[in-house]
Specification:
Blueprint: H1 2-27, H2 33-38, H3 44-54, H4 60-72, H5 86-121, H6 126-140, H7 143-157, H8 173-206, H9 210-217, H10 222-232, H11 234-258, H12 264-274, H13 277-305
Helix pairs in contact: 1-13, 5-6, 5-8, 5-11, 6-8, 7-8, 7-11, 8-10, 8-11, 11-12, 11-13, 12-13
Amino acid sequence: MAYFLRRLVATLPVMAVVAIIVFLLIHLAPGDPAALIAGDLATGEDIANLRVALGLDQPLWKQFAIWLGKLLTGDLGTSIFTQVPVSQLLAQRLEPTVSIAALTMLITLVVAVPLGTLAAYRAGSWIDRLIMLFAVLAFSLPVFLVGYLLIYSFAMQLQWFPVQGYVRFAEGPAAWLQSLVLPCVNLALVYIALVTRMTRATVLEVLHEDYIRTAWAKGLGVLPVLGHALHNAAIPIATTVGVGIALLIGGVVVTETVYAIPGVGRLVIDSVQRHDYPVIQSVLLLSAGVYVLINLLIDMSYRLFDPRIRY
């Protein structure tokens, strides 16, 4: 617990640097949100008055100090375009994004780990080559291209799943799951390829260890030996899953756009087009915080796989 608390405190400088970078990138980008909100018919005086009302006329350091002060009190600010608190916007969009991310990682682990283990066990065979070919193709194809192919095949032609949109869990678990199948499978293909390749490499290395040969010599079955090998190869796989979560944050934006899902990714796209600074800053900062926290939890999980590890 002491190590966890020390690591948690150590993330504070990281988040501070992220906050500064996010603020500078957003505010130094070209475009005037006041002009966008005022519209094409607004005069220069109207735009100037709106900039004063929004606080955009203040020096950059003062805008940052005001934003940081609100952030420390839990106030994420108010959307410039919709005048709705950012926390309320995120609460409305959080369920679709969390549902996609959780189901995508579940599909990835259920499919990729057995495939990678099988490829390692049958290394050099046609099964291994077929699995690796699938992994290369899944990792190489663009997410949006696979998305359109899935929509055309399973939604438009076979009509098994809805073309676009999202059904909330409260409206029915079956409809909720049906609306998530295509986007989650689409997004999971990249991570299945990544985790499959890592699982194969690490399990194949473990299968050449002396204790595995001893297990074979004692007459243990295939499943117990592979389970033992997989347990000892779990740390690199867990690390790869952590990297996959970082990629997942960016992949959700594309997937939600293709499938017209009203999640955080779509909120980011809309906010970027409108130059809605408070929303963009809050989403980027929270994404960085989630990524840092998940990687910390993955580091803490190493001891579950190898009790010899000491923090």
